[in-house]
Design a protein that fits this description.
- There is one protein chain.
- This protein has 388 residues and is α/β, with parallel strands linked by helices.
- Helices cover 43% and strands 18% of the residues.
- The protein has two domains: 189 residues, Glycogen Phosphorylase B (Rossmann fold, 3-Layer(aba) Sandwich), CATH 3.40.50; 184 residues, 3-Layer(aba) Sandwich (Rossmann fold), CATH 3.40.50.
- The strands form two sheets. A seven-stranded parallel beta sheet has the order 3-2-1-4-5-6-7, with helices on both faces.
Amino acid sequence: MAKILMFSNRLIIGGPSVHLLSLVEHFSKKHSILLLYGAPLENEASMEDEFRKYNILLHKIDNLKRSKNPLLDMLSMASAGRIIKDFEPDIIHTHTYKPGIIGRVMAKRYGVKRIIHTYHGLIFDSYFSKTLSLTLAKIDKYIAKSTDVIIALSEIQKKQIIANIGEISADKVEVIPLAVSEQEYVFSEEKGAEFRREKGIPDNKILLGMLGRLADVKNVSLAVSIFAELKNKGKINNAMLMIIGDGDQKPMLISQAKDSGLNISFDIAADNTDVLFIDWQRKLIPLYSAMDILMLSSKNEGTPFNIIEAQMMQTVIIAPNVGGIPDIVQRNKTAYLYDNKEELLSSLQNLLENEKNISDMKHNALNFAKSNFSMSRMLNSYEKLYTI
Protein backbone atom coordinates (compact mmCIF):
# COMPACT_ATOMS: atom_id res chain seq x y z
CA MET A 1 0.00 0.00 0.00
CA ALA A 2 1.40 3.38 -1.05
CA LYS A 3 0.78 6.76 0.53
CA ILE A 4 -0.49 9.01 -2.28
CA LEU A 5 -1.08 12.74 -2.05
CA MET A 6 -3.36 14.04 -4.81
CA PHE A 7 -3.42 17.80 -5.32
CA SER A 8 -5.95 19.72 -7.45
CA ASN A 9 -7.19 23.29 -7.61
CA ARG A 10 -10.91 23.26 -6.79
CA LEU A 11 -13.30 20.33 -6.36
CA ILE A 12 -15.96 21.86 -8.57
CA ILE A 13 -18.28 20.39 -11.17
CA GLY A 14 -16.11 19.85 -14.23
CA GLY A 15 -13.77 17.46 -15.99
CA PRO A 16 -10.73 17.53 -13.65
CA SER A 17 -12.84 16.83 -10.56
CA VAL A 18 -14.87 14.07 -12.22
CA HIS A 19 -11.64 12.43 -13.40
CA LEU A 20 -10.10 12.78 -9.94
CA LEU A 21 -13.20 11.23 -8.38
CA SER A 22 -12.75 8.14 -10.58
CA LEU A 23 -9.18 7.76 -9.30
CA VAL A 24 -10.22 8.26 -5.67
CA GLU A 25 -13.12 5.80 -5.93
CA HIS A 26 -10.85 3.05 -7.26
CA PHE A 27 -7.54 3.62 -5.47
CA SER A 28 -8.91 4.51 -2.02
CA LYS A 29 -9.55 0.77 -1.64
CA LYS A 30 -5.87 -0.02 -2.21
CA HIS A 31 -3.83 2.94 -1.00
CA SER A 32 -3.74 5.62 1.69
CA ILE A 33 -4.84 8.85 -0.03
CA LEU A 34 -4.73 12.47 1.06
CA LEU A 35 -6.52 14.90 -1.24
CA LEU A 36 -5.32 18.48 -1.15
CA TYR A 37 -7.40 21.16 -2.88
CA GLY A 38 -8.22 24.85 -3.07
CA ALA A 39 -11.27 27.01 -2.44
CA PRO A 40 -14.04 27.36 -5.05
CA LEU A 41 -15.23 30.69 -6.37
CA GLU A 42 -18.55 32.08 -5.19
CA ASN A 43 -20.47 31.02 -8.32
CA GLU A 44 -18.96 27.52 -8.60
CA ALA A 45 -20.73 24.32 -7.55
CA SER A 46 -18.60 22.16 -5.26
CA MET A 47 -18.21 18.38 -5.53
CA GLU A 48 -16.52 18.13 -2.13
CA ASP A 49 -19.29 15.97 -0.63
CA GLU A 50 -18.81 13.39 -3.39
CA PHE A 51 -15.20 12.89 -2.31
CA ARG A 52 -16.17 12.55 1.36
CA LYS A 53 -17.95 9.28 0.55
CA TYR A 54 -14.59 7.53 0.30
CA ASN A 55 -12.00 6.50 2.86
CA ILE A 56 -9.53 9.32 2.23
CA LEU A 57 -8.14 12.35 4.03
CA LEU A 58 -9.24 15.73 2.66
CA HIS A 59 -7.49 19.03 3.32
CA LYS A 60 -8.62 22.34 1.83
CA ILE A 61 -6.14 25.20 1.44
CA ASP A 62 -8.33 28.31 1.67
CA ASN A 63 -5.62 30.58 0.26
CA LEU A 64 -5.35 28.49 -2.92
CA LYS A 65 -7.67 30.43 -5.20
CA ARG A 66 -8.15 31.25 -8.86
CA SER A 67 -6.30 34.55 -8.54
CA LYS A 68 -3.08 36.32 -9.49
CA ASN A 69 -2.21 37.24 -5.90
CA PRO A 70 1.45 36.27 -5.20
CA LEU A 71 0.94 36.55 -1.43
CA LEU A 72 -1.88 34.00 -1.47
CA ASP A 73 0.24 31.72 -3.64
CA MET A 74 3.14 31.91 -1.18
CA LEU A 75 0.81 31.16 1.73
CA SER A 76 -0.62 28.22 -0.23
CA MET A 77 2.88 26.91 -0.89
CA ALA A 78 3.73 27.09 2.82
CA SER A 79 0.52 25.24 3.74
CA ALA A 80 1.09 22.58 1.10
CA GLY A 81 4.68 22.13 2.30
CA ARG A 82 3.58 21.51 5.90
CA ILE A 83 0.98 18.97 4.80
CA ILE A 84 3.40 17.12 2.52
CA LYS A 85 6.03 17.05 5.27
CA ASP A 86 3.55 15.65 7.82
CA PHE A 87 1.90 13.10 5.51
CA GLU A 88 5.21 11.82 4.05
CA PRO A 89 3.71 10.53 0.78
CA ASP A 90 5.42 7.99 -1.45
CA ILE A 91 3.77 9.59 -4.48
CA ILE A 92 2.42 13.04 -5.21
CA HIS A 93 0.08 13.41 -8.17
CA THR A 94 -0.79 16.99 -9.07
CA HIS A 95 -3.54 18.18 -11.40
CA THR A 96 -3.89 21.55 -13.19
CA TYR A 97 -1.39 24.41 -13.29
CA LYS A 98 -1.13 26.08 -9.88
CA PRO A 99 -1.28 22.89 -7.76
CA GLY A 100 1.16 21.43 -10.27
CA ILE A 101 3.72 24.15 -9.57
CA ILE A 102 3.23 24.33 -5.80
CA GLY A 103 2.91 20.59 -5.29
CA ARG A 104 5.93 19.62 -7.36
CA VAL A 105 8.19 22.25 -5.77
CA MET A 106 7.27 21.06 -2.27
CA ALA A 107 7.45 17.38 -3.26
CA LYS A 108 11.00 17.90 -4.49
CA ARG A 109 11.94 19.75 -1.31
CA TYR A 110 10.69 16.94 0.93
CA GLY A 111 12.07 14.07 -1.11
CA VAL A 112 8.85 12.47 -2.39
CA LYS A 113 9.81 9.29 -4.25
CA ARG A 114 7.62 9.78 -7.33
CA ILE A 115 6.23 13.04 -8.70
CA ILE A 116 3.42 12.87 -11.27
CA HIS A 117 1.62 15.75 -12.96
CA THR A 118 -1.46 15.68 -15.20
CA TYR A 119 -2.20 18.47 -17.67
CA HIS A 120 -5.95 18.92 -17.97
CA GLY A 121 -5.51 21.93 -20.22
CA LEU A 122 -2.75 24.26 -21.32
CA ILE A 123 -2.72 27.78 -19.90
CA PHE A 124 -0.21 28.94 -22.52
CA ASP A 125 -2.90 30.10 -24.97
CA SER A 126 -5.96 32.37 -24.60
CA TYR A 127 -6.09 32.41 -20.79
CA PHE A 128 -3.70 35.25 -19.99
CA SER A 129 -1.71 38.00 -21.70
CA LYS A 130 1.15 36.95 -23.95
CA THR A 131 3.76 38.18 -21.45
CA LEU A 132 2.19 36.35 -18.51
CA SER A 133 1.69 33.20 -20.58
CA LEU A 134 5.39 33.17 -21.53
CA THR A 135 6.36 33.63 -17.87
CA LEU A 136 4.12 30.77 -16.76
CA ALA A 137 5.51 28.57 -19.53
CA LYS A 138 9.07 29.24 -18.31
CA ILE A 139 8.09 28.29 -14.75
CA ASP A 140 6.41 25.14 -16.02
CA LYS A 141 9.48 24.26 -18.07
CA TYR A 142 11.72 24.55 -15.01
CA ILE A 143 9.41 22.47 -12.77
CA ALA A 144 9.08 19.76 -15.44
CA LYS A 145 12.73 18.83 -14.88
CA SER A 146 11.90 17.53 -11.39
CA THR A 147 8.78 15.65 -12.51
CA ASP A 148 9.08 11.88 -12.91
CA VAL A 149 5.99 11.36 -15.07
CA ILE A 150 3.96 13.93 -17.01
CA ILE A 151 0.53 12.76 -18.10
CA ALA A 152 -1.12 14.08 -21.25
CA LEU A 153 -4.73 13.25 -22.00
CA SER A 154 -4.24 12.92 -25.76
CA GLU A 155 -1.50 12.59 -28.38
CA ILE A 156 -2.13 16.15 -29.57
CA GLN A 157 -1.77 17.45 -26.03
CA LYS A 158 1.49 15.49 -25.61
CA LYS A 159 2.93 17.24 -28.68
CA GLN A 160 1.79 20.63 -27.35
CA ILE A 161 3.35 19.98 -23.94
CA ILE A 162 6.70 18.97 -25.46
CA ALA A 163 6.63 21.98 -27.81
CA ASN A 164 5.83 24.41 -24.99
CA ILE A 165 8.20 22.99 -22.39
CA GLY A 166 11.05 21.92 -24.67
CA GLU A 167 14.19 20.16 -23.44
CA ILE A 168 12.12 17.25 -22.15
CA SER A 169 12.27 13.62 -23.17
CA ALA A 170 9.15 12.38 -24.95
CA ASP A 171 9.44 9.24 -22.81
CA LYS A 172 8.68 11.31 -19.72
CA VAL A 173 5.27 12.28 -21.15
CA GLU A 174 2.77 9.42 -21.02
CA VAL A 175 -0.62 9.56 -22.74
CA ILE A 176 -3.46 8.23 -20.58
CA PRO A 177 -6.84 9.15 -22.11
CA LEU A 178 -9.74 10.14 -19.88
CA ALA A 179 -12.45 7.57 -19.33
CA VAL A 180 -16.08 7.26 -18.33
CA SER A 181 -17.96 4.31 -16.92
CA GLU A 182 -20.13 2.46 -19.44
CA GLN A 183 -22.23 1.24 -16.52
CA GLU A 184 -22.87 4.76 -15.19
CA TYR A 185 -23.24 6.75 -18.41
CA VAL A 186 -26.21 5.02 -20.03
CA PHE A 187 -28.64 6.92 -22.25
CA SER A 188 -32.20 6.91 -20.88
CA GLU A 189 -35.03 8.06 -23.11
CA GLU A 190 -37.30 8.09 -20.06
CA LYS A 191 -34.99 10.29 -17.96
CA GLY A 192 -34.40 12.61 -20.91
CA ALA A 193 -38.14 13.03 -21.47
CA GLU A 194 -38.65 13.71 -17.76
CA PHE A 195 -35.92 16.37 -17.78
CA ARG A 196 -37.59 18.07 -20.75
CA ARG A 197 -40.97 18.04 -19.02
CA GLU A 198 -39.50 19.55 -15.84
CA LYS A 199 -37.77 22.30 -17.83
CA GLY A 200 -40.68 22.99 -20.20
CA ILE A 201 -38.75 21.90 -23.29
CA PRO A 202 -40.98 20.46 -26.06
CA ASP A 203 -40.20 16.93 -27.22
CA ASN A 204 -39.96 18.05 -30.85
CA LYS A 205 -37.30 20.71 -30.19
CA ILE A 206 -33.69 19.98 -31.12
CA LEU A 207 -31.88 20.80 -27.89
CA LEU A 208 -28.38 22.28 -28.06
CA GLY A 209 -26.53 22.35 -24.76
CA MET A 210 -23.52 24.35 -23.61
CA LEU A 211 -22.19 23.01 -20.35
CA GLY A 212 -19.53 24.56 -18.13
CA ARG A 213 -17.95 27.63 -16.63
CA LEU A 214 -19.16 30.84 -18.27
CA ALA A 215 -15.76 32.49 -18.59
CA ASP A 216 -14.13 34.53 -21.35
CA VAL A 217 -11.97 31.64 -22.59
CA LYS A 218 -15.12 29.54 -23.16
CA ASN A 219 -16.31 32.17 -25.66
CA VAL A 220 -20.00 31.33 -25.23
CA SER A 221 -20.84 34.71 -26.77
CA LEU A 222 -19.77 33.31 -30.16
CA ALA A 223 -22.32 30.51 -29.89
CA VAL A 224 -25.05 32.95 -28.87
CA SER A 225 -24.29 35.21 -31.84
CA ILE A 226 -24.35 32.26 -34.29
CA PHE A 227 -27.59 30.94 -32.83
CA ALA A 228 -29.15 34.41 -33.07
CA GLU A 229 -28.00 34.84 -36.67
CA LEU A 230 -29.58 31.55 -37.75
CA LYS A 231 -32.70 32.20 -35.69
CA ASN A 232 -33.24 35.67 -37.14
CA LYS A 233 -32.86 34.25 -40.65
CA GLY A 234 -35.62 31.73 -39.90
CA LYS A 235 -33.25 28.77 -40.17
CA ILE A 236 -33.75 27.18 -36.74
CA ASN A 237 -37.34 27.44 -35.57
CA ASN A 238 -37.08 23.83 -34.38
CA ALA A 239 -34.19 24.39 -31.93
CA MET A 240 -33.48 25.71 -28.44
CA LEU A 241 -30.13 26.66 -26.91
CA MET A 242 -29.66 25.65 -23.27
CA ILE A 243 -26.75 27.25 -21.38
CA ILE A 244 -25.88 25.28 -18.25
CA GLY A 245 -23.57 26.68 -15.59
CA ASP A 246 -22.43 29.95 -14.10
CA GLY A 247 -19.55 32.40 -14.23
CA ASP A 248 -18.60 36.04 -14.57
CA GLN A 249 -19.74 36.16 -18.21
CA LYS A 250 -23.34 35.21 -17.45
CA PRO A 251 -24.79 38.76 -17.13
CA MET A 252 -23.14 39.74 -20.42
CA LEU A 253 -24.51 36.63 -22.17
CA ILE A 254 -28.03 37.37 -20.93
CA SER A 255 -27.80 40.94 -22.27
CA GLN A 256 -26.33 39.73 -25.55
CA ALA A 257 -29.13 37.22 -26.09
CA LYS A 258 -31.80 39.85 -25.37
CA ASP A 259 -30.14 42.45 -27.60
CA SER A 260 -29.96 39.86 -30.41
CA GLY A 261 -33.73 39.47 -30.39
CA LEU A 262 -33.75 36.07 -28.70
CA ASN A 263 -36.38 35.14 -26.15
CA ILE A 264 -34.72 33.97 -22.95
CA SER A 265 -35.92 32.09 -19.88
CA PHE A 266 -34.37 30.97 -16.63
CA ASP A 267 -34.64 27.42 -15.28
CA ILE A 268 -37.98 26.67 -17.01
CA ALA A 269 -38.70 27.42 -20.67
CA ALA A 270 -41.76 29.31 -21.91
CA ASP A 271 -43.60 28.54 -25.16
CA ASN A 272 -41.44 30.95 -27.17
CA THR A 273 -38.07 30.41 -25.45
CA ASP A 274 -35.00 30.48 -27.69
CA VAL A 275 -32.30 30.41 -25.00
CA LEU A 276 -32.74 28.73 -21.62
CA PHE A 277 -30.28 29.52 -18.82
CA ILE A 278 -30.10 26.92 -16.05
CA ASP A 279 -27.76 26.41 -13.10
CA TRP A 280 -25.16 23.68 -12.65
CA GLN A 281 -26.67 20.20 -12.87
CA ARG A 282 -25.41 17.40 -10.64
CA LYS A 283 -27.50 14.70 -12.31
CA LEU A 284 -25.90 14.39 -15.72
CA ILE A 285 -27.70 11.33 -17.10
CA PRO A 286 -31.09 13.11 -17.47
CA LEU A 287 -29.32 16.19 -18.85
CA TYR A 288 -27.36 14.39 -21.56
CA SER A 289 -30.32 12.13 -22.35
CA ALA A 290 -32.41 15.24 -23.05
CA MET A 291 -29.78 16.92 -25.24
CA ASP A 292 -29.29 16.31 -28.94
CA ILE A 293 -26.13 18.36 -29.47
CA LEU A 294 -23.31 19.49 -27.17
CA MET A 295 -21.77 22.70 -28.49
CA LEU A 296 -18.45 24.23 -27.49
CA SER A 297 -17.11 27.56 -28.73
CA SER A 298 -13.94 27.89 -26.63
CA LYS A 299 -10.90 29.90 -27.65
CA ASN A 300 -8.72 27.16 -26.18
CA GLU A 301 -9.28 23.71 -24.67
CA GLY A 302 -7.27 20.87 -23.26
CA THR A 303 -9.24 17.63 -23.43
CA PRO A 304 -12.85 18.52 -22.52
CA PHE A 305 -14.33 15.78 -20.36
CA ASN A 306 -17.89 16.74 -21.28
CA ILE A 307 -17.21 15.75 -24.90
CA ILE A 308 -16.32 12.24 -23.75
CA GLU A 309 -19.35 12.07 -21.45
CA ALA A 310 -21.65 13.35 -24.18
CA GLN A 311 -20.52 10.81 -26.76
CA MET A 312 -21.06 7.94 -24.30
CA MET A 313 -24.56 9.39 -23.87
CA GLN A 314 -25.24 9.45 -27.63
CA THR A 315 -24.93 13.21 -27.98
CA VAL A 316 -23.59 14.86 -31.15
CA ILE A 317 -20.68 17.30 -30.80
CA ILE A 318 -19.98 20.68 -32.41
CA ALA A 319 -16.64 22.03 -31.20
CA PRO A 320 -13.65 24.14 -32.21
CA ASN A 321 -10.68 22.41 -33.79
CA VAL A 322 -8.37 23.28 -30.88
CA GLY A 323 -6.35 21.56 -28.17
CA GLY A 324 -6.89 17.85 -27.73
CA ILE A 325 -10.43 17.87 -29.14
CA PRO A 326 -9.55 16.25 -32.51
CA ASP A 327 -8.13 13.26 -30.59
CA ILE A 328 -11.38 12.53 -28.72
CA VAL A 329 -13.94 12.66 -31.56
CA GLN A 330 -14.42 11.20 -35.03
CA ARG A 331 -14.62 14.15 -37.37
CA ASN A 332 -17.87 14.24 -39.38
CA LYS A 333 -18.98 10.98 -37.75
CA THR A 334 -19.48 11.89 -34.09
CA ALA A 335 -18.61 15.58 -34.31
CA TYR A 336 -18.34 18.63 -36.51
CA LEU A 337 -15.16 20.58 -35.83
CA TYR A 338 -14.72 24.14 -37.04
CA ASP A 339 -11.83 26.55 -37.50
CA ASN A 340 -13.75 29.81 -37.78
CA LYS A 341 -17.13 31.45 -37.29
CA GLU A 342 -18.31 30.64 -40.81
CA GLU A 343 -17.62 26.92 -40.35
CA LEU A 344 -19.46 26.93 -37.02
CA LEU A 345 -22.46 28.56 -38.66
CA SER A 346 -22.57 26.10 -41.57
CA SER A 347 -22.03 23.07 -39.29
CA LEU A 348 -24.85 24.07 -36.98
CA GLN A 349 -27.19 24.88 -39.85
CA ASN A 350 -26.40 21.56 -41.54
CA LEU A 351 -27.26 19.59 -38.41
CA LEU A 352 -30.45 21.49 -37.65
CA GLU A 353 -31.73 21.12 -41.21
CA ASN A 354 -30.92 17.40 -41.44
CA GLU A 355 -32.23 15.59 -38.38
CA LYS A 356 -31.27 12.19 -39.83
CA ASN A 357 -27.64 13.30 -39.55
CA ILE A 358 -28.19 13.83 -35.83
CA SER A 359 -29.64 10.34 -35.46
CA ASP A 360 -26.76 8.71 -37.36
CA MET A 361 -24.09 10.65 -35.46
CA LYS A 362 -25.65 9.73 -32.10
CA HIS A 363 -25.24 6.05 -32.96
CA ASN A 364 -21.64 6.64 -34.06
CA ALA A 365 -20.87 8.57 -30.87
CA LEU A 366 -21.82 5.70 -28.58
CA ASN A 367 -19.77 3.15 -30.51
CA PHE A 368 -16.74 5.46 -30.63
CA ALA A 369 -16.91 6.24 -26.90
CA LYS A 370 -17.14 2.58 -25.92
CA SER A 371 -14.11 1.74 -28.04
CA ASN A 372 -11.87 4.59 -26.94
CA PHE A 373 -12.65 5.66 -23.37
CA SER A 374 -12.43 2.46 -21.35
CA MET A 375 -12.37 2.97 -17.58
CA SER A 376 -10.54 -0.31 -16.94
CA ARG A 377 -7.80 0.64 -19.41
CA MET A 378 -7.29 4.01 -17.73
CA LEU A 379 -7.19 2.55 -14.21
CA ASN A 380 -4.70 -0.12 -15.27
CA SER A 381 -2.37 2.62 -16.52
CA TYR A 382 -2.53 4.43 -13.18
CA GLU A 383 -2.10 1.14 -11.31
CA LYS A 384 1.39 0.90 -12.79
CA LEU A 385 2.24 4.50 -11.88
CA TYR A 386 0.99 4.08 -8.30
CA THR A 387 3.04 0.93 -7.68
CA ILE A 388 6.19 1.75 -5.70
